[in-house]
Protein: Phosphopantothenate/pantothenate synthetase
Amino acid sequence: MKIDPKHPRALSLQNREKLVWGVKNGITSPAGLIAFGRGEAFDYLLSERTQPFAKKAIRAAAAYLLLAKKPILSINGNSAILCANEFIRIAKLLNCRIEVNLFHYSQSRVKKIESLLKSLDPERVLISKKEEKIILPEIASKRAIVMREGIGNSDCVLVPLEDGDRCQALVKMQKKVIAIDLNPLSRTAKYAQVTIVDNICRCLPLLFREIKDLKNKDKRFLEEIINSYDNNKIINEALRAICAKLDDTL
Ligand code: ATP
Structure:
C-alpha cells in the first residue's frame, strides 16, 4: 500500500504495513499486530513524541548497558520487523549480541528472525542451538527458552515489547532489565529497573546516541546516573503526562 508521507499518521501506517509484511513472511506473529495496536493507543496519549521522562530512562539504560559485563539485546518478531537495523547498530557499539526470544514460539520463526539479523551482520546474532538451550524458571510461556551463552549468562538484558512474566523472572534472577514499553501500566513497566515509555522506533536511535555519548565516561560517572535514577518516578511522570493530555482535551 502506498502511504502519503504527508498523512498525519504516516509513520504509524508505514509501521503497520511492515508488520503485516512480517506476518505474511512468517517473522511477526498475528498476535503481534494486536500488541502493536495496544502500543499505538498509548502512543496517541503520549502525543507520539519522546517525552522528557523517556529521555531520562534512555540515559539510565545507556549507563546500565555500558556498565554491564555481559549485556544482551533480546528481540521478538515485532522489534525485528520494525527496528532490526537499530538493534545491530546498538549491539555493535556495545560489542554484544542479539538473541531471538519469542512469546509465540516456533522454530521456523526463530530461524527467520535470525536470518534477517544475519543478513545485516552475522557477528551480532546469537544463533540458537539445541544443545545450548536452557529453560528459565518461573516463566509459563515459551519465552522461558533461552541460550545459556546469551540471556542465560547475561547480567543486563534489553527487553523491548516484553511480557510481564519474563520481565519479573529476569529481575528475580538478579539481572538488570531495561524495558521498552509504551504502556506505563503494564507489569513489565512496573518490574523493570529501567522502563523507557516510548515507541521503540523513536527511542532506539536515541539510545544509540546516548550510548555513544557516554561510552568514554568513567565508571563513577555512569554509576552516578544509575544511582540518581528512580524508575517509579519515571512511571509516575508517564502516567501524569497521559492524564494531562486527557485533561487538556476535555
Ligand atoms: P504485561 O504482561 O507486561 O502486563 P502486555 O500483556 O501488555 O504486558 P504484550 O501483549 O506482550 O504485553 O505487549 C507488549 C507491550 O508492548 C504492550 O504493553 C504494548 O503497549 C507495547 N508496545 C507495542 N508496540 C510498541 C512499540 N512500537 N513501541 C513500544 N512499545 C510497544
Summary: The mean pLDDT is 95. The longest strand covers residues 71-75. The chain has eleven helices and seven strands. The chain has one domain: 52-249.
